[in-house]
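for the writeup, i need someone to sanity check this before i put it in the appendix. the sequnce is what the collaborator sent (i think, or maybe the updated version? ugh). structure was predicted straight from it, no edits. if anything looks off just tell me and ill rerun, i have time this weekend
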Amino acid sequence: MNVIELNELQFRWANQPKNTLALPELSLAQGEHLFIRGSSGSGKTTLLNLLAGILLPTSGHLQVLGQDITQLSTAARDRFRADHLGIIFQQFNLLPYLSVLDNVTLPCKFSKRRQQQAGQLAATALQLLEQLGLAQINPSTAITQLSVGQQQRVAVARALIGKPELIIADEPTSALDADTRDSFLKLLFNQAEAQGSTLIFVSHDPSIAQHFPRSLDLQQVNQVWFC
């Protein structure tokens, strides 16, 4: 079973004369790592929102983990996303009023499946933080006391906890220099591989493609550019 399977997928915003996204096909196998490149306006965010079930396609076929998410209600899509997807945001979206530990374990508060997968929740969170190079950080520390690089690793731990099958990373390295970016990618790959997660990494930076076995230039495959 492919983790992602889409065919003739189209999305158009209401009252717009043309599609934002028109993809003929895309499939992604379990454990695969895919880099998606695209300039501003190429449809990157729209594609991620479709894969996460935040948006629904205007037409076409879309399956995530064998589930036709277009047939799910809004509440069911929210549960599906909480159970099966880990998302790393460009701005991290950590909660400033929570500690490091509480930020990491937050997804498990919304998903019984991920809580069960995590086992001993605090111990698993601490193990992830250690594997990501944050063993020296007191887990009760306020997230606002951490550096940007440390917050980024907390965001990765939050995405990974509970072993979600699909990790989506949306421009998480945009503010990093090349050396820090490469170290971050290595950590992310190691952790995703350790738990068998499929990884979709989106960025406008073409140099990141060299780190991935497979890459996709959205501007080349999005057929709205050829209309």
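The helical segments are 44-51, 74-84, 100-109, 112-118, 121-131, 148-160, 178-194, 218-221. Residues 178-194 form the longest helix (17 residues).
thx in advance!!
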